[in-house]
Amino acid sequence: MFAIIGMILFGFSFLLTDNFLIVILIMTIFSVFWNPITPINFINVNSGDRFKATGQNLYATTSGISAICASLIGRVIYDKLGGSNLYLYLSLIALVTGIIYFILLNNKEGIKAS
Predict the structure, then answer these.
(1) How far is residue 101's CA from residue 99's CA, in Å, rounded to a whole number?
(2) For the chain, how are helix, strand and coil distributed in percent, rounded to 5?
(3) How many CA atoms are closer than 13 Å to the CA of 16, on its beta-carbon side?
């Protein structure tokens, strides 16, 4: 639940300020604390001891490929609709994805949240 609230606040924080330094601060805090800790913890809890490295490598590969795809799609949205709309749509996508993930995570007995 806290992750969904965090995603909402993170996404809409870009719409609330025009100060570039605040945006850089938010992105730095996000990348330092969220990215390395949460997915690796999730992988370590849900994979056996034998497959922890494999799970982490698959996560790193998926993150890299998704960053490339997101960059290409984001560029098209930015060119067609502008920067503010890009972050609005990406915030909504993150919110919907987070809600779907939360529902699926709570319905599966084999997956542990942490």
Answers:
(1) 5
(2) 85, 0, 15
(3) 9
85: which residues sit within 8 A by CB, 6+ positions away? 77
Phi-psi region of 19 (alpha: psi -120 to 50; beta: other; left: phi over 0): beta
Q: Break the chain into its structural domains and give their ranges.
A: 2-43+52-107
Give the HSE-up count for residue 37: Cα atoms under 13 Å, Cβ half-sphere.
6
d(CA 75, CA 82): 10
Taking the model in full, what pTM does it have? 0.53
Yes or no: say if 52 and 44 are a contact pair by the CB < 8 Å rule.
yes
Amino acid residing at 4: I
pLDDT tens string 14-60:
677 777 787 777 777 777 776 667 788 888 888 888 998 999 899 88
